[in-house]
Design goal:
With 331 residues, the protein is α+β, with helices and mostly antiparallel strands. The protein is 31% helix and 15% strand. It is built from ten helices and ten strands. It starts with 16 loop residues before the first helix and ends with a helix.
Length: 331
């Protein structure tokens, strides 16, 4: 039986209402971190026709003009006219933020000293994965032809096309009313788009609007870093890493590594390597990946992984050489 299969993935642009909500949440996070790097932020956002509602829990030593942050984010995405159903200048912005629970803060803040025993800011499972593998208002036929010729065909192998191949390009034939006017946007509804497009599991927690004490975000970045370095070291062609954390506890409750049979070592041989070369406690992750910087607005569209942005330190493979040497007995 053939092991070949077709994996379908989805991608959306920064103008998608859910992605607009993600960008607003991350812009609020960046605004706080730029002035107080110890801010605790859990920012949610809802976008609808003519209305944006940022909400959630925030504890910070600085104050932020939330309405200005929201409006500037909307403007930068391109919603600058009532014709689009959302105008940055005239839309309503309601801001019902609350403070973070002191019960959560106590567990997280215990580790603010020089030690690395800061507790995880949430209960979570995270996965990391790595492998070595047009304008509006144009005729639908013109759009379909352009997508097929310019986007699909350049990356489609000849042996994947047959007489029964069908290309479905906006099969409804028309999609003009979009954005928050056509579909209510909510932060955190594109978590598969944000990560691996369905090629790997997801722990279920959104990233956007969360400061890095929330391991939903920082743990997922660390897991990606581990997986990418193992692949870059030549120890596997495909690698999946799972971390799990309990709220208020620094060390992960479990670390699982699997190369699905593609590894130079078996999975049990990869796990000790990871423990020797990566400190996966939240505070260590934050330090090593420099996650207290206001870098998060850029993550909110076009995915968190597989992008060589200078701020995305989780994409670097500086551990690959030492992992390879250790695996070869050279440490």
């Amino acid at each position: 039986m053939s092991n070949d299969y077709l994996l379908t993935s989805k991608s959306v642009s920064e103008g998608h209402p859910d992605k607009l909500a993600d960008q607003i949440s991350n812009a609020v996070l960046d605004a706080h971190l730029s002035q107080d790097k110890h801010s605790r932020v859990g920012a949610e956002t809802l976008c609808s026709t003519g209305l944006v509602v940022p909400s959630g829990e925030i504890t910070s030593a600085t104050s932020v003009d939330y309405s200005s942050v929201v409006r500037e984010t909307i403007r930068s995405v391109g919603y600058d006219s009532t014709e689009y159903g959302l105008d940055y200048h005239g839309c309503a912005v309601l801001v019902p933020y609350d403070r973070q629970s002191p019960d959560i803060a106590q567990a997280v803040d215990e580790g603010r000293g020089l030690d690395l025993e800061q507790g995880a800011g949430d209960q979570a499972m995270m996965f990391g994965y790595a492998c070595n593998e047009t304008p509006p208002h144009i005729e639908h036929a013109t759009l379909a032809e352009a997508v097929i010729e310019e986007i699909i065909m350049p990356v489609l192998r000849a042996d994947m096309v047959g007489k029964d191949t069908r290309y479905l390009v906006n099969p409804t034939g028309r999609f003009v009313v979009g954005g928050p006017q056509g579909d209510c946007g909510l932060m955190g509804r594109k978590i598969i788009v944000d990560t691996y497009g369905g090629a790997a599991p997801h722990g279920g927690g959104a990233f956007s609007g969360k400061d890095p004490s929330k391991v939903d975000r920082s743990g997922a970045y660390a897991a990606r870093c581990v997986a990418k370095n193992l692949v870059a070291a030549g120890l596997a062609t495909h690698c999946l890493v799972q971390l799990s954390n309990a709220i208020g506890v620094a060390r992960p409750r479990s670390v699982m590594i699997t190369a699905s049979g593609s590894g130079r070592l078996d999975d049990k041989g990869l796990e000790p390597l990871v423990h020797r070369h990566f400190d996966l406690r939240p505070k260590s992750i934050v330090r090593k990946l420099d996650l207290l910087r206001p870098i998060y607005r850029k993550t909110a569209a076009h995915g968190h992984f597989g992008r060589e942005e200078p701020q995305f330190l989780w994409e670097r493979t500086g551990k690959a050489a030492e992992l390879a040497a250790d695996a070869a007995g050279g440490r």
